Batch of 2 targets.
Target 1
Amino acid sequence: SRGVIVNRRTTANLYGYERQVFGKPTVIVGLNSRGDMTEQTATIPTAFPAGTVLRDLTGQKPDVIVSANNE
C-alpha cells in the first residue's frame, strides 16, 4: 500500500486512523473492538478540508461533513 498511516484516535475500544498519500488524505478508518455490537461515535481530527463530504462505504451510516475546524 502507498502512503502513511496517521493515528487519529486510540482508546481502549476505538482506533481511528487516516491514510495519506503525498501528504493528502485519502481515507479515514474507524475500528470498534467492544465486541458487543454497541455503536460508538467519535470526533477525530483530519487532514481533509472543511466541507469535505465523507462517505460511509459500509452503507450503515449517513455521510458526514468535515467541520470548519477539520474534525
Target 2
Amino acid sequence: SLVGFCAELHDRATRFRNLSNRVAYPQRDVAAEHAALCEAALARRAAAAAALLEQHYRRTAGFLGGGLEGQ
C-alpha cells in the first residue's frame, strides 16, 4: 500500500539520518549547511539552493559510506 511504502521510506530516512549524524559530527556544521540552504531557497536562488543541496547530500553520503564500512 502507499501508506506502507511511505512508512518504509520514513524508516530508511531515519536510519540514514541517524547513521550520518553519528559519523559526521563534530566534523561538520550541519546546522550551518541547513541555514545556507534555507536562505538560498527563501531568496529564490534556485541554482544556489540546488547546488547547496547537492553538496550537502554528497557530504552526507561520503560520511555515511565511510561509517558503514565498520558496521
